[in-house]
Amino acid sequence: MMVLKELLYSKDHEWLKVENGKAYIGITDYAQKSLGNIVYVELPEIETELSAGDSFGVIESVKAASDTYIPVDGKILEVNEEVVDDPSLINQEPYENWMIYIEIKDESQLKELMSAEEYEKYCSKEV
Amino acid sequence: MENLKKTVLYDAHIKQNAKIIEFAGWVMPVEYEGLTIEHDAVRNNAGLFDVSHMGEIEVTGSDSLYYVQRLITNDAEGLEDNQVIYSLMCYHEGGVVDDLLVYKFNKEKFLLVINAANIEKDFEWMLLNKGNYDVSIKNISSTISEVALQGPKAQEILQGLTNYNLDNIKFFYFSDEVEICGKKCIVSRTGYTGEDGFEIYTSNENIEKIWNCILNEGKDYGLKPAGLGCRDTLRFEACLPLYGNEISQDITPLEAGLGYFVKLDKKDFIGKEALINQKREGLKRKLVGFEMLDKGIPRHGYDVLVDDKKIGFVTTGYLSPTLKKCIGLAMVDINYSNLGCEFNIAIRNKTAKAKVISKKFYEKKYKK
Predict the structure, then answer these.
(1) What is the span of the domain harbouring residue B197?
(2) What is the pTM of this model?
(3) The domain at A18-107 falls in which architecture?
C-alpha cells in the first residue's frame, strides 16, 4: 500500500491535499485496491455545500457501489470530469486523480484527520 | 468472521491472495486477481471455482423416484441413470423453496445439490414431506467438497488429469467413476456460467489435491482460480437465476420465466395447484431483461418506477463485463414487460431511464 507524506487522510479512506484553505480530495491506494476495478464514478454538482461525513459521490466496482464521504465541511469548487469519463484512472494513480476540489469551511476540522504515518497504522489494523 | 464456516480449500485461497467475504454463513473467496480478469478467463479459457459450500442431500430407498417427483417441479420420470436435471422445489403456495440439480444414480438413489444458504431449510422441508415414502434422506453436505471447472478449455484441462474419456459425459450427465489425479470423483457436465464445463464432487480429504492438480494442469491454458464475484456476473449474463434474487419464497417459477422447468402435466408435486391457478389467472408480474438508456449501474433491490410509481424491482444488475453495457433483470408489472417498454430505475436519489430487452444477454456456449 502506498501513502504520500504531504497528504491528510480520513478514516473512510479519502486523502486531502490542502492548500490555502482549499483542498483536493480523492480516495487512497488502500481504498482503490479494496474496491477492485472501478467502473463508474458519480460526483456532486459544483457549488454544493456539504457537511463533514456527507456523501459527496459514488464509486462503483463491478461488484458494488460505495459512497465516498467528505471529511470536512466544504463547498464544491470543481469536480474532476476525467475520472467520470475514465474511472480506471483512480485504480492507476489514486493520488494523481482527485475527485473534488473544495473550499474548506472550518479548518479546525483538519485536526481530526490522520497523517500518512497514522493512516498506515490505521490500515494495518483494519485488515 | 467468527462462527462462519470455511471450506477445506480456505487456506489454499489465502495462499493465493484471495479477497475473502462472508456469504451465506461461509467465508468464501470473492476474487483473486480481480473479478473482471477471472470473468474473462472463464469466457475465453477456463476458471476454477471452489463451490464446496453448496449442499448435497442423498435420497435412497425403493420410493426415491416417487419422493423426488413429489418434491420437484421438473419431471424426473424419464431420466436415464447418470442423468442430471435442473429443477425448482416449491412451497404449496407456489413460491420457491430452492432451485437444485437432481442427479439420478438409479431409481433408488438420487443426489440433490442445493444452495448453501438454504441447506438447513431445504433439509427440513424434505424431512417434513417424507410422508410414507420408503426413503432415507441424508444431508451429506459436510462430507463433500465441490469445485467447478468452467470455460471453453475445461475439457482439455480435465482430460489431462484422467483416463476417463470425458466425451462420454454429455451435457447434463455425470459419471461417478472418474478418477482425477488418482482420486475418485463424481463429474457432471453442468455449471453456472453459460460455458461448457464440469462440476466435480469428491470427499473432503481429496479436494485440495484436485484443486492444485487442476490449477497446475491449466496453467498453459490460461486457467485462473475464480471467485464468487465473477460467478455472479457470469451466471447473470447467461440469465441463470440466483435464489434470493430472481427466485424466492415470494416469487414463483412462472413469474421468474422458469416455466420450462415446471411440468404442470406431471401427476403430482408440491405447489402444482397454486402454479396451475397462477397460470390460468395470468401472471401479474414477470421477470424481464433491461438495458440502461441513461447513465448508471442498476443493482439488486433498486426500485423500478413509472411516473414515480413503483412497478417492480431490480433482481440483479451489473455493468456486464462481457457486453460492456449496463443491464439488469427486474421483476415488473406485466403491463410493462413487453420488449421495448421503457421505465425508470431509482438509483440513489436519481432516476435513470431503461428499456426492456431480451433476457438472452449472452448466448450460452454449452457443448450438447
Answers:
(1) 5-53+143-237
(2) 0.95
(3) Beta Barrel (2.40)
